[in-house]
Amino acid sequence: MTNVEKYETLFATLTSFYIIGRYDVYKQKISKDLDNKSSKELLNKSKEAFAWLKSLQT
User: Fold this and answer.
1) pLDDT digit string (tens) for 1-26?
2) Radius of gyration of the chain (CA)
3) The Cα angle at residue 2 between residues 54 and 4, in degrees rounded to 5
4) Cβ of 22: how many Cβ atoms within 10 Å?
5) What's the domain count of the chain?
6) Is residue 3 a contact partner of residue 52, using CB atoms and an 8 Å limit?
7) Domain range enclosing 47
8) pLDDT value at position 52?
9) How far apart are alpha carbons 46 and 36 in whole angstroms?
10) E strand residue ranges, 12-53
11) What would the pLDDT profile of 25-57 be if each residue is shown by its tens digit?
12) 5: how many CB neighbours lie within 10 A of its CB?
């Protein structure tokens, strides 16, 4: 599995949160769907993906 495949689902999830977060109607839905544990997991995966993207610059 390549890193692109590894992070594809993460990027799709982050994109959907970005779009949904722009509209007030959906903000409450996001807060119901994300508990503390899943938020931390999403943050950690995002940090890992960001580090991988940064490594591509060199």
Assistant:
1) 898 899 999 998 888 877 766 777 77
2) 13
3) 55
4) 9
5) 1
6) yes
7) 3-55
8) 94
9) 15
10) none
11) 776 777 677 888 988 999 999 999 999 999 999
12) 8
The pLDDT assigned to 48 comes to: 96
- DSSP 8-state code for residue 23: S
Please state, in angstroms and rounded to a whole number, the distance separating the CA atoms of residues 38 and 35.
6
Distance set, CA 56 to CA 1, 24, 26 (Å)? 17, 36, 34
How many residues are present in the chain? 58
Residue identified by tokens 């689902």 is 9
The whole-angstrom separation of Cα 56 and Cα 58 is 6
Instruction: Give residue 30's identity as a one-letter amino acid code.
Output: I
